[in-house]
Structures are given as C-alpha cells and as structure tokens.
Design brief:
CATH topology: Purple Acid Phosphatase, chain A, domain 2
Shape: globular
Helix content: 25-40%
Length: 296
C-alpha cells in the first residue's frame, strides 16, 4: 500500500524547473496554531518570520513541505490566521512573485481539496481588483513536486513524507480525532506525547525512514526531500539520497534545507549565544554545502 501511495505521489507530482543558480528554501512542520498553549509554533514565531523575510529579500523560492498549518488541534483556520497574520502577509508577497509552493501534510491534509483552499482565500484574501483575484485564487496546495535543474538529468521529489506512514495518510481522520479530543489535553496535563506522531514516536520515525529508503532504492536512487518526522537528515554523498528538513518547532530554533547555485545545505536559524536583552537571530550551517550532483 505505501509503495502504491509513493508511486502515485511521484507520478502525479507537479513539475517545476529551476536554473542552475536558483535559490530555494525548504521548511516544513510549522504547525501554526492559534497562539494558545497548544500552539507549538508560537515559540519560534519571531525566528521564522525573520528568516522568511531574509529569504524573500534575497530572492529565494519558498517551498513548504506540509504541516504548515495545524488543523488537527484547531477546527477552524480563522484563529490561526489572526494569530499569525504577518506570516500569511509575507507568504502572500512570495505568491505575488511566483516564488511560493505549498504542499499539504497530514495535519493540513484538508488542503488537498481545492474547494477548501478557495473557501479560505475568499474569506481572508478578498481581492480589491480583478488582477488580485487571479493571484489569490490561483493558489494551490500540492501533494508533491518534482524539481529539475538546468544541465541536470536527475530530479528531486519533494513531499511531506507521510505517504510512507499508512495511518497518517490513509486513516488521518482517526488520528486527527484522537489528537483533537484526547492527546492534546494529555500532553498539557500529564506531558504524555502523542503516539500517532512519528516525531514523538522513535519506532514510528524509523519505520517511515526505512520505507522511504526502500522506495528510493527501488526507483533508481530517486532523491527525496521531505519532512514529517521532524528529524533533520542530510546523507553523505553515496548514501541513500533521503533528506529531511527537520521542523520549525524545535526548541528555540527552526531547521530547513537550502539549495543555492546547485549546492544543498542543512541550516538552522536561532538566537545568538549572546545573553543580552537584544539577542540577534542568526543562521548556522549544520551540513554542507554539497553539490547536488553528488546525490544524483
């Protein structure tokens, strides 16, 4: 079943071409919530906003690999939008310049329905003129992207990663029910982690990675960049080319993957070690940069 799901995601992926000097940033697993106790994103709000503005100013294309919005713990998008409106305004700027690609994950899987996306856009991004209407209402969420680069024959499959997690892909509504009405409160009151999440379940995490690795080997070493497990992954050249961009809900930091000038890096944005009242937000390169061709 998982193999068929991954094959379908690969076959139906949106093809996107880039020049050899393209600049791309991948983030995933923001889990933007309503700014309540259950909103894991709020602790890294300022770091993420600073990083995203920096990428916008530098001309990067932004690819969000799913779970950007927390729709398991929250029934409505409205409080999420109000809590993080400045972030959505920034994403709108990327969209205007056609530098934005959004994928859905298990926690925002409702966005695989274009009607749901359009309903939200009509509610919160009412256009002032016809040209704005074309911009806002052309916004799409994808399951997967197939990225190709100038002078390169190989491609990169970008997806959330829950395609290798049967319960979180096929029976996601069951998991959503337990998270929304049970595990959220168990975590608050007793610190008990949600067992449906591979990020909080080591055995589940390893199982997901193993299935993705096997699919890569069965498909001509097809390179993948994903999220879902929250565990950053940056293989050595010659290893199975499975990359994971971590998440934006790590303690006091966000982790992502950059591609710039045909080189790939794993990066972290965080506050500097300066303990003063105005600590700077800085970027640290964790792995790389390595030439993409070393993984093709």
């Amino acid at each position: 079943m998982v193999n068929r799901i991954l094959n379908k995601a690969f076959r139906n992926a949106r093809h996107v071409s880039f020049t050899k000097d393209a600049k791309i940033i991948f983030f995933s697993d923001l889990h933007k919530g309503d700014n309540s106790y259950a909103d894991d994103f709020k602790h890294n709000y300022e770091i993420y906003k600073y990083a995203l503005q920096s990428y916008y100013d530098q001309g990067y294309t932004y690819i969000e690999l799913g779970d950007g919005i927390e729709l398991w713990e929250n029934k409505s998008f409205e409080p999420i939008f109000k809590a993080h409106k400045s972030i959505f305004d920034l994403l709108k700027k990327f969209q205007r310049q056609k530098r934005l690609y959004l994928l859905w994950g298990n926690h925002d899987m409702e966005f695989r329905n274009p009607i749901k996306v359009e309903q939200i856009l009509h509610t919160f991004f009412t256009p002032k003129n016809i040209s704005d209407k074309h911009i806002y209402f052309d916004l799409e969420y994808y399951e997967s992207l197939l990225l190709s680069f100038e002078n390169t024959q190989k491609t990169i499959l970008a997806l959330h990663g829950h395609q290798a997690d049967y319960m979180n892909y096929v029976h996601w509504k069951i998991n959503r029910f337990f998270v929304r009405y049970f595990w959220k409160y168990m975590q608050k009151c007793f610190g008990i982690s949600d067992p449906t999440s591979p990020a909080k379940n080591y055995k589940g995490l390893i199982k997901v990675e193993r299935k993705l690795n096997q699919w890569i080997l069965n498909n001509n070493n097809q390179m993948i960049i994903c999220g879902h497990t929250h565990r950053p992954r940056f293989p050595d050249p010659g290893d199975i080319p499975l990359f994971n961009d971590g998440s934006c809900v790590h303690p006091e930091s966000i982790i992502g993957i950059e591609i710039e000038n045909s080189k790939i890096s794993l990066i972290k944005w965080h506050h500097s070690k300066n303990n003063g009242p105005k600590r700077k937000i800085v970027k640290t390169v964790l792995e790389g940069p390595e030439a993409l061709n070393n993984f093709f």
